[in-house]
Amino acid sequence: MLKEGMDILVVGLGTSGEACARYLLDTGSAGCSVRVTVVDGSETEALQATAADIRSLGATVLLGVSDIAAEYDLALMSPGIPPASPLFRAAHRASVETISEIEFAYRRSSAPWIAVTGTNGKTTVTSLIGQLLLGGGVAVRVAGNIGMPAISAVAETGPAGAIVAEVSSFQLALTSQFHPRVAVLLNITPDHLDWHGDMATYTADKARVFANLTQDDTAVVDVDDPGAAPFADVIESRGARVVRTSVKSVPEGGVGVGAGGYITAMVRGVAHRVVHRDALRIRGAHNLANACAATAAALAFGVSVEDVRNGLESFEPLAHRLEPVGIVEGVEYFNDSKATNPGAAIKALESFSDRRTTVLLGGRNKGASFDELAWAVGGRRARAVVFGEAADEIAAALVKAGVDYEAATDLRSAVGIAHRMASEGDVVVLSPACASFDEFASYADRGSRFKEMIASLGREVG
Question: What domain range is 230 assigned to?
Answer without folding.
Answer: 109-314
